């Protein structure tokens, strides 16, 4: 099998160094990597501002060696070419795969990949984060980046599962080790936080939620969060905890906001011996109150992304409808307008863009 005909050129969004506006242009289709696949994109999502301060500072500067890059670190598509050196692959021509954006270099000698932490690899692949991503008709990926899309999962869901789903899952299950008998406070119900909420409900822990948007809290109530466990908008979380007799009961605070205020609240409301799980990065710097943290003997855990297995596991939860990622879809061509809408707060969940050929 050779696959469908591939055009010589494709359309892609590119960000040029020093230019905030993305440019939609016709460029060559990338060659099929010998150890990977050429994938026809069916849905793409992710950070749209590669040089935005909203992403992790270490990754956010425009790569110095590049003049332009295709953004989009969440992708899903069809394998249309298989590299000449791909052997015994789990995937074949025509398969639909979610794209794990951070498969790393894959070397067992790599200080990170050797410990199964490819997402922390400093030399390997990071699609859409300093290397070409999914806002294009085609993407070239290594075989290690392909994750089979389970039946019943849409390409848009598959795309956002690779980060918004995986990061939330990894944070709650692997890093936070949240268990059924715990009481958790969750700050922030954006794209990641809402997925995290569903994972916590699946685990069976009690979860108290706080967000600044009434409509989002209503959606959480529909998922089964009792009204008594929803901090009213505008209410001080510390007061809510006191008034509801929850002092000394909060095992873990999962902070998907990451502001100075939420981190301060977290240190104050968590019980002695508890855990602060830190995922959001709205403030680059927050303050550790050493007296509180030492006296309470707290554990502070950070999370960034997730491992390949986390993508597989969260896709399984999506297939089982345990996690229903909030995702809105739009057209590739509307990318600049969608960026504008994101800035103006008109997009309430995660966006996945569908290329014109779909
Ligand atoms: Zn590596």
Automatic annotation (TrEMBL):
What are the UniProt keywords, alphabetically?
A: Membrane, Metal-binding, Oxidoreductase, Transmembrane, Transmembrane helix, Zinc
So where does this one cross the membrane?
A: 184-205
Q: Which cofactor does it need?
A: Zn(2+)
State any single GO MF term: zinc ion binding
Give one Pfam family.
ADH_zinc_N
- Its protein name is Alcohol dehydrogenase
Residue span(s) of domain Alcohol dehydrogenase-like C-terminal: 191-319
Q: Which organism is it from?
A: Venustampulla echinocandica
Q: Where is the Alcohol dehydrogenase-like N-terminal domain?
A: 47-151
The entry's family comment says:
Belongs to the zinc-containing alcohol dehydrogenase family.
